Amino acid sequence: MKTEVKKIDANIREINVEVNGDVVSNKFEDVFKRISSEAKVPGFRPGHAPRDILEKQFGPTAHEQVLKELIPDIYSQAVDKEGLDVIELPQISEVKLDRSNLSFKARVEVSPEINIKDYRNIKINYKNVSVSADEVKRSIDSFKETRKLEKLDDSLAKSLGYPSLSELEKVLEKQIFLQKENSERQKLESQIIESLIKGLDFKLPQSLVKRQLEDMLRQAKLDLALKGIPREKIEEQEKKMREELEPETRNQVKVYLILSSIAKKENIPLDEHMPRKVMEFLLKEADWNIKD
Questions:
Q1: Which of 9, 18, 259, 264 could form a disulfide with 2 if both were Cys (CB 3.0 to 4.6 A apart)?
Q2: Which domains does the chain have, with CATH numbers?
């Protein structure tokens, strides 16, 4: 197999592929064997029709089947050979096939080359999380108000499923702590992302941006529908929603590609858990400035 890659722009590549010899001829033989065993040719039992008759009646069919089976396999081999990080299905063109040769062009979109150097020891500021007695009291008061309770004591706490009032207070304290801790975690991740993005400029693959935008738009329309907004009103707002969502879409794609680049360097699998695993790695490697 011969391959040649031409760089069209930052994210587009065109692969010229040529294959000849046994790979092509053997595929034709395999296809014609299957056709022979299945074809109904007058005057012949299945599998016994002469090859020239099969060629005459089923030549175009065999040609299409060979293309259907060979091109995906050969394309995949070409991508692996050239080490391309393809992110979208290829556009196949200029296909030529005879009984011993196959050639075609495949235009593909690839992930941009992102040169991230200093992703370890990112400086982050963290504030120790604590819960004050006043915060617990406010939570208790809110708990009473939302349930129209005049007095909250041990007996009432037991009726609500808690052993005592002090146990209820502990539960509320833990909830407040987890909420505050989650908020601090989000701030840390924002600091890391801001540090990673700073100074990095690369062209975003349009297929990823388009796909992410469609997903976000679909979710936004669903949210409006669940709020009871009529379908026609939602459709009227679609153009405006696209414009409003695009900046955040582009930012999300940029962050994802940066995290993917780090994942490759650190041998972190590129699965659905990749963003979380990379973020955990970056937090572990970060330079923490802890404040009380």
A1: 18
A2: 2-109 (3.30.70.1050), 123-291 (no CATH)
